[in-house]
Amino acid sequence: MEKRTKGAWLINHTKKLQDVNNAHEFEDIELAGKCGVFLSNLAASNEQSDLNADTVSAIAKVSNIKKTEIETIKQKLVESKLIETGAMGSISVLGITTSSVLSHTSDIFAKSNPSNYQQAALELAENVSDLPKTEEPLAEYISDSYKLAKAETSDLLQQAEEIGFIDYETLDDKSKFYFNGNLFRRDGVKKTNAVLASLVAEDTSKIVELDSLLSSSGCITVEKAKSILGETLLSKLQSIGMYDFNEVSNSKEIKTFVTKPAAFSKYGNPFEEDALDLAKAFVSALYYGINYSTHGRGKITMLHALLRKLINGTEVGPATAIGEDYKILEFKRVVQLRQLPDSNMYYMRLLKKDIGALAMQVLEIGDTTEQTIIGSSMYSGSVTNYKGPEYKRTVNRKKQTSQSKKSVAELLRTFRS
Question: Do 293 and 343 sit in the same domain of this protein?
Fold first, then answer.
């Protein structure tokens, strides 16, 4: 498995492990994944970042890193010569792109001398990404490749199911059919056509209509997607990863936007390109500004010009909406905000230019894969949280909670001080 692919799976598995207790067998995966997430949230892609202790602490919270973990993670990053620690808990980090974060995450995992059991947990997910697999050949492959006893392989499959590393459906003959949410990030057209072939003509026509819309615009509201497909069909297709659901929220409302998994494929594998969901969060925040912000607070009307300015390193603003709609991106240091003195208006500067370029690709071009299948009322609320496609797909199976308004306010105060 290539470094970047392994790094993407490490981060994916780490996100899954955050909601699980006593998964001690996967400690090296979780440590490497948290190192990767923390490093990404520390770094800007084109410049050195010098961060004081308060900002570092806030970034640790955003990265879901506990106080008991932070020193170990910092030490791992120091040993890898990725950060330098200074007086009073400060950190300096050179410009690091999202792509290099994945490779560094993989290196940190390799240096921890992980067990075959943990290596197999990554391979298990990768193996069912291209095509779903039945239990017997999958178990045999994993057992042979990683020298696991039959009992160990059986235990790994059970743990992977319970944690959510992989999903399964039980077939009529009671055998399990394994897959995950990464299916449609590779060979999406071929797999979509296979889905279409299995549906009735009416449903096929609806999917073609939605696919055409997403191919041209890149992102649409979930309400629009439901109006085309209907809630039942859309839910089924979400559960297998055919569409990505991206949720942005604040204290007053939740808005969900739909994208195609293959849209985030600027240079290669879209699973690797946006493994941290940063471009998806940026696209969703921008789309919120286009569709739900008012002119009085800074409604986005010239998207192309805005993105080009940001990618070229120019500050944009000032606008009230900038201080409200990009909070989650500020937390993850995709953007940096600057408040106008004695005002509620803000300027915004892009820190992660690679993420901005990927977001521009999706919003300007739509689906950039080489093929296609076939040749509201305004509200002035703020975006304070983001949930990515894999989270939303999992929520389609079990419910989870959101970040509190108080926590958001405390973190913002730290970032802006």
Answer: yes
Residues 123 and 94 in one domain: no
The candidate with the shortest Cα–Cα distance to 122, out of 182, 63, 70, 172, is: 182
| Interior/surface letters 4-15, b for 16+ CB within 10 angstroms, e for the rest | bbbbbbbbbbbb
* pLDDT for position 54: 93
Q: H-helix or E-strand containing 299? A: none
- Alpha carbons 392 and 379: distance in angstroms, whole number: 23
Longest dimension (CA), the chain: 68
Q: What is the DSSP letter of 68?
A: H
pLDDT exceeds 50 at position 368 = no
* Calpha distance 254→105 (Å, rounded): 32
Q: Is the dihedral of CA 379, 381, 383, 385 positive or negative?
A: negative
pLDDT score of 225 more than 70? yes
Question: Measuring CA to CA, which residue among 158, 152, 163 is closest to residue 22?
Answer: 163
Tell me the DSSP string of 357-384: HHHHHHHHHS--SS--S-----------
Least confident range of 72-76, 113-117, 194-198, 240-244: 194-198
Contact 356, 350 (CB under 8 A): yes
Residues 99 and 149 in one domain: no
Q: What is the CA angle 354-357-359, rounded to 5?
A: 110
Domain count for the chain: 3
* Average pLDDT over every residue of 281-293: 79
Top pLDDT among 276 and 71 is at: 71
Query: Which is more confident, 16 or 266?
Result: 16
Per the omega criterion (within 30 degrees of 0), is the bond before 318 cis? yes
Note if the pTM is more than 0.90.
no
Confidence of residue 371 (pLDDT cuts 50, 70, 90): very low
Q: What is the CATH number of the domain that holds 147?
A: 1.10.10.10
Provide, rounded to the nearest whole percent, the portion of the chain with pLDDT above 70. Answer: 81
Q: Which domain, by its residues, includes 85? A: 1-114
Is residue 187 in some structural domain?
no
- Of 235, 225, 229, 133, give the one whose Cα is nearest residue 183: 133
Q: What does the pLDDT average to over 265-275?
A: 65
